[in-house]
Structure formats: C-alpha cells, structure tokens
Design a protein that fits this description.
Blueprint (H helix, E strand, L loop, with lengths): L1 E7 L15 E10 L10 E7 L8 E3 L2 E4 L1 E5 L9 H13 L5 E8 L2 E10 L22 E6 L11 H4 L13 E6 L7 H18 L17 H13 L10 E5 L5 E3 L30 H4 L3 H14 L6 H15 L1 H10 L24 H22 L18
Antiparallel strand pairs: 1-2, 2-3, 3-6, 4-5, 6-8, 7-8, 9-10, 9-11, 11-12
Helix pairs in contact: 4-6, 7-9
Length: 407
Amino acid sequence: MLRSDLSIFDTQGENNYLTDEPALSTLADIRYRGNTSLHFDKKSYLVKLVHADGTENKQEVAGMPAHDNWVLNGPFLDKTLIRNYLSMNISAEIMGYAPRVRFVELFVNEQYQGVYVLMETISQGTERVNISSYKDGDPFTSYILRIDRGDTPENELNNFSKYIKRIPPNTETNRYMMNVEYPATRKLTPALKEYIERDFSKFEKSLYSYDYDDDDYGYESFIDTQSFVDFFIINEFFQNYDAAIYSTYFYKDIRGKITIGPVWDFNNAFDNYMEVAHDGTGFALHDRTWYFMLTKEKAFVDAIVHRYKTLRKTTLSEDYLMNYMDETVAYLGDARDRNFEVWGYSFDPSKLTERSLLEPYERNITSYDQAIEQMKAFIKKRGSWMDEHIETLYQYSHESNNKKFNH
C-alpha cells in the first residue's frame, strides 16, 4: 500500500488539464488489485481516500455518492475498453443496483496511463449495498459475502456448500473461499463469524434437502429469488462464466433475505477469456454451486424464461445494446486514441506475453474497430441463440432428471 496525493479534475462540458483547479484533492492509500490482471502491463488499483492521520475520508467522486473506497480498473485484455462500463450499467437497470462507473483518464506522476474505469467497490452503505450497519457488541448482523480465489483466512466461512463439496475443490493454483466482506475483519469476532456461517448455511441446507421446493421449508424462505434469476440471466447472456465461482457476492440485511449480487467483473465476458473461446452457444450456470439445485425446480426455470423474454424486449434487446455500445464509444471520443498511443502495442500479439494473449492465437484482436465488431457480433449471436434455446433449461427441472432429489 502506497500513500499518495490524488487529484481529480472534473469540469463538465469541456476538456480538463492538469493545470486546472482540481474538483477534489486528497491523500489516498493505493495498491494494485486483481488476480489474472496483476500480470497485465496496465495495472488496476484499489484506492482508499484518507486523511493525514490515515482515517477514512469519504468524498463524492465524479458525481458518485461519497465513500472512501474506489477501484481504478485498467482495461488491457479488453480492447474495447467498455466491457465493465456497459455491463455494470446494464446490470443496474436490471437488478436495481450495480457499482456505479465512470470513465477517467489517469496520470501517475504526470505520466499518462490511458483510459480507466473508476468504479464503486462493493461496500455497505445507503448508496451502495443498502443493509443496516453493524453495531459493536451485537450478536447478530447484516453481512456481505464474497466467493473468490483465496483471501484472508480470518474471514473464511466453512459454509454448508463447502462442507458437502459443492464449491469447487482447492487446487495448487486456486484456493476457493467464501469470505466475509462486511462487517470488517477488525469487528469479526469468532461468534459473529459463526452466526453468519450458520445463517447462510440455513439457506444451503434447505436448498440441498428433499424439501428444496417446499413452500414452508424450501429455499424461497431464505433468498430473494428474483435476484438469483436476474444474476443468472445477466451472466449467461454475457457469458461471464466466472460467475458463481469467482467475484460473486451475496448480501443480507438482518431483517431481510439473502440476495445474490451486486454483479462484479466483466473483463472476460463477451468471449474474452484467455484460455477458452465462447462462441455464444450453450449454458453453464445451471451446473454451478447454488444453481445446480435452483434449476431443478420448474418454478425457478419458469421465472428465468419469462424474465429473459421480457428483458429481450427492453434492456437486453439487440437494438438497445448496439445503441448503448455506439453511444459509449462516441462518448469516449479522442480518449480512445490517447489510450492506444500508450497501449497500442497490445494490438500486436507478437508483443504480448502468454499471460496477456487469447488462445488460440488467431482470436487476438488487432484493432479497436475489430474489437468493437467482435463484441457486437457476439451479442447478436448470443441473443439469437438464447432466444431459440432458453426453454431447453426446462430439461434440468424435469422429473425424469430429478427423481433422486424429489420427495
């Protein structure tokens, strides 16, 4: 973690310059963030705004509600620069909240670093994840959880899905963990962690039981089902197949039900995974940890199918998404050219390491226009394929497929 001066220039309707009066000046503790992206030349950063004594300094940033924690996401593998921006905004329209995002151009020590996406972190707060705050000494709490690669062992939960091995097994390269993101580690007593563990596991035990679809004892008593439906559709439509394995969040207000989300991390969506190509066909989430059982109930699949068909007329329609992309690219304007004056070599696969290349080699994008056309073509193909095949999800809820799970 490095302490630094941070200035933000945000004059509306005209160009901004480093010689201007900044809209915000503060100290900030900054470190690299990410997993795979740590190997990219263009780094992403976690930014915590602080006072001189190190205490948090909550500030409005680029028109977004005041907070002290922010992310500077540096698109490098994503040659369009817009995957996270578009996906977060579309997801917010569907789910009600996703982290707010703004395009910025970053300078470090007066050296231009290109286009970045300034993002809210997934944090508790009335303008972020709106759950009640924890009061010191309470035996109960609202909470935010995250499943991802290894994190702080002090925060790790031994939840029921881990116990019955529905969470992928740990390997030498990936250690899958469900961690408590809120309350903060400094407040997370063993008793409080055990409460969260038991509370979340109540949902999982009901889900994996013979009563999973029961009106009184089934999973719907514990979760906001609509959030699980929307999360499924968003990540399937964008083929964001880290979902429900990595970068997946849950939250629960002490008076409410478990909600999946907010969504996070679409760098690899729209056929941008390095290791494997996605051609816009197929489904995957039905076999992921919690969805493995959720999609065994016809009513849940009904909800997916009906919601998908509704969204395809509005937020997920081809016209809406194509127009959104065009408007976003136009908004970036000359900033795209400035970005690739620094990072233009990323269009030459011969100049990239294997940690920055798509496989096979011919998948690598060689121009910005090609990157936009690839993403548009993917969205069109994916939408067309899902329109034709969305009802095939019923096979996973059919009685013939689920005899051993039903009472």
